[in-house]
Every structure is written in structure tokens, then in C-alpha cells.
Amino acid sequence: MFFLHRATLGLTLLLQIILGNSLIVPIAHSASLPPLGGDEQQGITPRQGDKAQNSEPSSPTGHSPFTNWNAFTPPQRGVPGRREGGGTRGGDCPSPVTALIPESTMGRTASKQPAFFLYIPGTLDQKVTEFEITDEIDKTLYKTTFTLNIDRPGIVGIQWSPNSKFITLEDDKNYRWYLTIKCDVSDSSKDILVSGWINLATLTNDQKRQLEQTQDPLEKLKLYVQQGLWYETIATLASLRLEQSRDVAIKNQWNQLLQSIGFDPALKETQNEKNKAQTILDAPILKIQIN
Questions:
Q1: How far apart are CA 250 and CA 246, in angstroms?
Q2: pTM of the model
Q3: Residue among 279, 272, 256 nearest 40 (CA)
Q4: Do 37 and 261 touch, CB atoms closer than 8 A?
Q5: What is the pLDDT of residues 180-238, one digit of tens each?
Q6: Strand pairing partners for 212?
Q7: Domain 60-290 is classified in which CATH homologous superfamily?
Q8: Cα separations (Å) of 27 from 5, 14, 43, 267?
Q9: Per residue, what are the HEC states of 127-153?
């Protein structure tokens, strides 16, 4: 779980996260970051399994390559993830729903139960939502349903409780997750589906000890960025934003993180794309829901 104690933050301390550690590449300005393209909706082909590859290219800057969140790649011959999902016309859901994951749709984590974050551009009235985890060959390992309810547009985190019967993920393996909002339980063509890949990282004993001994969320955040742990990084910043929504420094750090995975209005070509990216940057974090 990614619930954090309230921390008093100053701009100077925040800048230390970005610049204070020579091993950390600034999130929004990694020299190895590839040009960011548009965020068009990807088509979905029949689900089939080829192993996902964990690409860890060397960095010309000598910094940690993991800060380039988009460096990980989905399967070469398999089905890529889907960051943006919308149902057919007539569905009783706002769309498009956007998963806050890297452009590659692959995210690294050391957690057996990572949290997932979505931007939802409207209200949801107790919509049945399905979550599924599969292995590399798309065999279902875990599936559950719950309800989503929000009264305004914003970002929602889905966090699984340690007490839930969640599948135990194994180190150094890739998994795929699917999250489907059932807009009309009688018509699956109106479902909204987003999906992505998880690469479960193996940490050294020293890295584990560092994380266990570090209590301050900002110091922990530096370690997550250094190790390229996407799901821990976004969950930590989201929790800080939820707790301290008026803190400008945290807001700026959050924006840099989202810009680094393609939600940067300055790099979009059309006004519609610019507006969409800016809307996601400005969206409030409504809640982190535990299931």
C-alpha cells in the first residue's frame, strides 16, 4: 500500500529530489528520452502471448537508464498495452479513459501489489469494474470485480489491499493487467478497456534495506526513481498530491512525471492533443481506492 504520512515540503527540498543525487536523471529532461509522440488510441488485436522483453539500454549520460520510463518494450510479436480506452457510442461512461503508464505501456515495479492510476473525464455512478492479471502467455492468474464511483472528472488510483486474495507475482517476470469498466452490463461492446505490462524487478538486499530504513516519502521517492520503479514513483507522488493538493512544488513534480511519459502539451502537434494533455496535467487526484 502506498499511503504516506503528511510531510512538510519546501521548494529547496523538492529540488534535491531532481538534482541532488548524481545517479538520478531529472524526470522531464532525461538525455536519453526519445521524442514523445501523440497519445492516439491503439487498436486491440486478439489477445495472445509472446514474452514481454525487459529492455534496459545503456545510458550515454552514465545515469540510471531506468529514468527513461519509455525504454521498456512490450512483446515484439504480442499485443501492446492500451493507454486510452473508449466504448462504442451509447455507453453510459465518459471517454476516453486514460491509463497513466509509460508510452511503451510497460512499467517496472518491486511491489507484489502495485497501484494503477486512471484519468476519467467525467462521472461514474457505481460502475462495475473488472481487473485481471495474466502471465506472459495471457493465461489469467487473477480476476476480480468492484465498483467505481466518482462525481467529477479526475484521477483515480486502484490499490489492492495486502489482505485481498491477490496473485503473488514472481521476480524477474512480466505480467499483463487489464482494467475494464462495464458501462452497460448487458452489452460488452460498450466496455472501456485499458491495459498495460508489469515488469517485476528484483532488488538487491542493499536496495531493499535502503527502502525499508527510509521513512521520509521524499527520500524514498529518490530511491524509486533511481531504480526506475514506475508504479512506486507515481503512487508516491499521487499520495503526496492527494494529501497536499495546494503544494505547488509537488504539483510541478507531478507534472514533470506525466510529461515524461507523453502528456506534455508543448510537444503535441494539434490543439486537441495539447488540450487533452493539459487537462490530464490539471486533473485533481480524487482518491486512491482500496479493493
A1: 8
A2: 0.76
A3: 272
A4: no
A5: 999 998 999 899 999 999 999 999 999 999 999 999 998 999 999 989 999 999 999 99
A6: none
A7: Immunoglobulins (2.60.40.10)
A8: 24, 13, 29, 16
A9: EEEEEEEECCCCCEEEEEEEEEEECCC
